[in-house]
Specification:
alpha/beta, 11 strands, globular, 35% helix
Length: 243
């Protein structure tokens, strides 16, 4: 009897959902193990605030920060995992369970303030260097566009510092994430500028690993849909994303 009780407890523990957020440089601070989203810092803070509103207050300390590459590996692990703020791409479509959209956004291409202003079609600049975070949606996007000189790093802080130093030509960054990324890189806003290249529209999702139970996924879908219908969703968006 004791064996079966222990086995049941172990099984229950093994199925506990793990919550993660990624790429929070300049978007959140750690207050004794609890992540606090920073007002007006953009989409990452907004995503974090949504997840915090979906789960029990007693579980706030369970939301952990990981790099994007680690987040994607966790989503393909044999554990029930929820990640906030994964951009949908065709290559990712069948790899995860897509709970629901958190927000719509745009990748904008930035360049050094001292560079010759780039205008025109993306196809006119395919030989220019571009910096992205490895395994990010931006990497998949610039590859699909046909950029040939792609520099892959572990953070956008590195990309932006390279851009300010004119070591690369372009960095694509989510529009609502721009200020947080500049802050995280410890750069001034006037050190880089928007290029004349067209924007790329994307959607960010709350995502679950394939090992997350159907009941848990449906429960989060229901809660997220209800939150998005409420005035509180717009309040959170205004506080953290400035919209």
């Amino acid at each position: 009897m004791i064996f079966f009780l222990l086995n049941a407890l172990c099984t229950q523990y093994a199925k506990a959902i793990e919550f993660y957020a990624h790429s929070l440089e300049g978007s959140a601070i750690d207050n004794n193990g609890i992540l606090v989203p920073i007002p007006d810092s953009g989409s990452r803070a907004f995503s974090l605030s949504i997840v915090q509103n979906l789960i029990n207050d007693k579980k706030q300390e369970k939301i952990k920060i990981v790099p994007l590459s680690r987040a994607l590996k966790l989503l393909e692990s044999d554990r029930p995992v929820i990640i906030a703020g994964i951009i949908f791409t065709p290559k990712r479509a069948t790899r995860f369970q897509w709970i629901g959209t958190l927000y719509s956004d745009k990748y904008k291409f930035y360049e050094s303030k001292d560079a010759m202003l780039s205008t025109g079609k993306l196809s006119d600049h395919l030989n220019s260097s571009v910096c992205v975070v490895a395994d990010s949606a931006a990497e998949e996007i610039v590859e699909s566009i046909g950029f040939k000189d792609i520099h892959k790093t572990s953070s956008y802080s590195t990309c932006l510092k390279m851009l300010a130093a004119r070591r690369i030509k372009f960095v694509p960054i989510l529009e609502s994430d721009f200020r947080a990324k500049i802050h995280g890189a410890q750069l001034d806003l006037n050190e880089i500028r928007l290029s004349g290249l067209p924007d790329i529209s994307v959607e960010s999702y709350l995502v679950a690993s394939k090992k997350t139970s159907a009941n848990d996924v449906v429960d989060l879908m229901t809660k997220l849909a209800a939150l998005k219908r409420s005035p509180h969703y717009l309040k959170l968006k205004k506080i953290y994303a400035g919209k």
